[in-house]
Amino acid sequence: MTCEHQAPPDGGAALELLVHGVGGTTPQEMLGDPRTTRITGDATAAVYRRTEDVGAEQDPGRHRDGPVAEAYCWSNLTSGNASRALWLLLLPFMVVNLAHWMRPTARSAGNAVRLYGAVVRLIALSLTVLLTAAACEVALDLAAWQCAGAAECVARHSWLGFLSPEQGGWWSQPGRRLALATLVPTALVTLLWYLSNRTWSAYESQRPLDSETPDDDPAPAAGHAPPPPAVRPALGRPGFWYGRRLVARLRAAHTAAGLLTVAAAVWGAAARYDGTTGSAVPALYGRLLGAALVLCGTTVVTVVCRRGRSERRLDNRVDRAVTTFLPPAALVLLLAAVVHAAWSRPGWTSTGSSLPGEALFAALTLGQGILVVVLAAVALGLYTRAPEARTTLRGLGGPAVAMLACALGGVMTGGVAQRVADWLDGPGTPGMGDGPWIEGPPVLLSWQAAVIPVLLLLLLAPLTWLVVRTVRRVRRMEPAIEAEYGAERPDAARTRQIARVRAAAALTDSAPRIVGLVSGATLFLGAGALVGAWTAGEVPGLAVHGAGPFVESLADAAQATGSWMIGFGFILFVTWGRRAYRDVSARRTIGILWDVGTFWPRAAHPFAPPCYAERAVPDLSSRMCAWTGQTGGRLVISGHSQGSVLAAAAVWQLPDTARHQVALLTYGSPIERLYGRWFPAYFGPAPLAGLHRSVHCWRNLWRATDPIGGPVRIEEADGRPEVDRGPLKDPLVYGRTLEHPLPEPVLGHSDYQADPVFAVERAALLERLGPVLPRQAAGKAQGSTGRSSG
């Protein structure tokens, strides 16, 4: 759809397009009227009006006191379906996807930018392998190899009886037990592929607005001077919100990687046995299969590294050679590995460490650490070339978040392995030597669990410092607050309440330091755990045997505490998902997490939760372009919180002619405070200044009591007024007055429309969008009275 713009009708048709923030709301609440009508859209995301305002463009005289209000409701994209609570299990994938977008601003550094993206995609690939390896650890190692091979464990878990060597059945040989157990990790990989494909079709397959590039824009309507030319930022490129090609390539590569991990696990166990004893299996078959696995794995890594996103044009192509042949090839190799393992080996018993689980987890941990360090070096190099003062952690925000993604993946995979081992081993403690039946999971998982209490102890100091600093800040604020409100009779409790809210809101700016500290400590402690597991070969409690009672008890306590904490973390994820399935309020809370975390497209990990903005941004830009094109009227897009980020992204997508008829009103906006600092390449000073120049007018309202929103920090330039207005008074009055006989609440992040400044600034934006011209022919000034207008 392209925009053909008409002159505004007589009377100056005006529209306010409201976009809500995190958590969502109803159109009735947004419009302040119980009677609303859907104008365009569907049950997932739609635009609504008051019923009495339908067709208001045909009689603009009815709305001379203000613009017609429309509400865009998009909350069902993130929190409408109870099954989406299970997306919590995909949290590591979502976090590593965020690291891709946290790249520092780059100037003439194309190779470094491509390297940054490739390294993040490799880290994301390692998370897929880690999740699959955890499933293999549970199904192949703990269940099929260890428990099914121990008569005592089988006696306690009768459902494994047909696998027991005591039965002497066909499945009693270890290779055949492993072949059967591959069904579990294979089903997991298949489920992830299915969810990725299904969510793409449901949420991200909407084509964005087919707008012209700035050089191709038609001449603006009479009376509207074109804005100064500007370079189109990344979020304004035609293909930014339509990553079909990359997602399809990554989905094929990650699916193949998961299947190859399963194949390598079962082939490795059989090949290790064949290499130490005389086997009836042809040696050439095993060698060829191993070479094919290496070749296919190399192809997967090449596909992941080779090509990133294509944004400069709307790319509808799909690399059929990759998406069609790579996953089936990996599946064929998995079937070949299953056949190889199921070959009869009468002398093979499941004793000793024949499964390469320890080596696989160690290689993954080491590889992830090296990749994070390389990513940090690339990010620091980019930041050095174009430093920006407010960029998070001097450009190291992306590597820090990538490290957190790896840590979350370790907690989840280690947690499920530890808990399954405890369940299978009955009263014993796996790995401690007192387990009567099984040896337990790899030693490395116990070392990683043991460092978690140490990490928490390290966090006590900075958290204590934050608390002390906040208390001192509250005391310093109190005299200034009383002076600000001119309180003749100060109320100590009221003053302290306002000061506490303001001080707590300021804690948001300390988040980067905490994230950096946690990520750095995790990297070093993880390296220590890897070295300890590698050198000792035993769990921490046994590795320090003979070092003294105090050291032994300390190691035992750290291991036990960490083991239970890592298991508790996994159980907590499952519990939240189960509660959210039944509880609407909990579902909305989890939806808020996705509102913040899934704004960005899936550029690093295809199994991450879907990007709602790939539906919401085209919806908003299409609606604005259609309305301004049909009516020629003035439009204010009014976004709160996360809605302000969607509004800005939609404005960036508009052609110049449509953008010049649009004013931007943001309030409680994290566009600079969070997005500008954490995602500087896309919301840094240069892109926001460009948005200010390209849009007709922009106003941003903020409060000091708001923990999320803040100023956008764009100063007056080129004759354009400053964007920010704030901090707004919150509460509006200090105590009881004739106009406010009841105590006014401290609103913080909510209800900006309650402030009189809101209506004043909206009216000022509409006035600056003028002047209006005489009405054109009636056929050229139709209103948006039906769903087809969207």
From TrEMBL:
Residues 206-232 are annotated as: Disordered. The keyword Nucleotide-binding does not apply. The keyword Mitochondrion does not apply. The chain crosses the membrane at residues 85-103, 115-135, 178-195, 252-273, 285-305, 325-343, 359-383, 395-417, 445-468, 514-537, 557-577. It comes from the Bacteria. InterPro entries: AB_hydrolase_fold. Keywords: Membrane, Transmembrane, Transmembrane helix. This is Lipase family protein.
